[in-house]
Amino acid sequence: QLQLVESGGGLVQPGGSLRLSCAASGFTLDYYNIGWFRQAPGKEREGVSCTDRRGGSTNYADSVKGRFTISRDNTKNTVNLQMNSLKPEDTAIYYCAAKMDLLYGCDFAQYTTWGQGTQVTVSS
C-alpha cells in the first residue's frame, strides 16, 4: 500500500524554524515528484514547494521563497522541508504528496498520493 507520513510539525515562535519530513512506504520515491502543500483555516490548499524525482528541479510559492528549502534523500526514502524565518501566516496543516513523473521538472498539479498532514502553528 502506498503511504506517505509527515512529521516535524509543532508550535514555534515567529522567526523560528521547523523541519518537516515526509517518509514513504510501500514504494520508493525514485520515480516520483514530491510536493509540499498547506491549508490554512478558511483558505484553499496551496502548493508550497516541489521537487522532481532527482531533486534537480524545484519550485516554491512566492510567499516562501528564500525561507523554505525542499530536499530529498532517496536512499532514506524521505523528502524534507526546512522552514526558516517562520511567520504567523505560515500557520497551516502541511501535507506531502507524490505523483509518478519521469519528466524533468515539477509542478503542483495532479498529485495522486497524499499524507495525513502535520500541523504547523507560528505564534508568540
Your description of this structure?
The chain has 124 residues and is mainly beta. Helices cover 0% and strands 49% of the residues. The chain has no helices and eleven strands. The strands form two sheets. Strands 2, 4, 5, 6, 9, 10 and 11 form a seven-stranded mixed beta sheet that branches. A four-stranded antiparallel beta sheet has the order 1-3-8-7, with no helix packed on it. It is globular and about 40 Å long. It starts with a strand and ends with a strand. 33% of the residues are buried.
Low-confidence stretches: none
What kind of sheet is the major sheet?
7 strands, mixed
Structural class: mainly beta
| Cα gyration radius (Å) | 13 Å
Strand percentage lies at over 45%
Number of strands: 11
Give the topology string: H per helix, E per strand: EEEEEEEEEEE
Can you count the helices?
A: 0
Arithmetic mean of pLDDT:
93
In whole angstroms, how far apart are the ends?
40 Å
Q: What global shape is seen? A: globular
**Which percent range fits the helix content?**
under 10%
